Task: inverse folding
């Protein structure tokens, strides 16, 4: 996607969930100045037990507030990195995925 290409090419990449340790993989790409990020989450194997997943992000500015494209809500960076973001309602088949954009907002 052109809108996030700069993050893919020049951002910092963090692996959040290893596909060897479960049925998901996820990673986040964060801009060098920590003003935006893209989370990619992929469920490669469906399991009825996986209806709700918490993902703790990495690389964000702990003291900043970010708007989340998944639900339109604002979250502090430290909350996203320590408590995590809940992913739910998208995981009904193997191969499902979601990309979530985060933009730092001024408060």
Result:
């Amino acid at each position: 996607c052109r809108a996030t290409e700069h993050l893919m090419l020049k951002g910092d990449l963090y692996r959040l969930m290893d596909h060897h340790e479960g049925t998901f993989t996820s990673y986040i790409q964060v801009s060098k100045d920590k003003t935006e990020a893209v989370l990619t989450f992929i469920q490669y194997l469906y399991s009825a037990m996986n209806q709700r997943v918490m993902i703790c992000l990495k690389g964000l500015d702990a003291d900043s507030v970010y708007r989340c494209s998944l639900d339109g809500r604002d979250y502090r960076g430290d909350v996203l990195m320590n408590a995590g973001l809940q992913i739910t309602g998208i995981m009904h088949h193997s191969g499902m995925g979601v990309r979530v954009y985060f933009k730092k907002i001024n408060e």
Summary: The first strand starts at residue 12 and ends at 17. The mean pLDDT is 85.
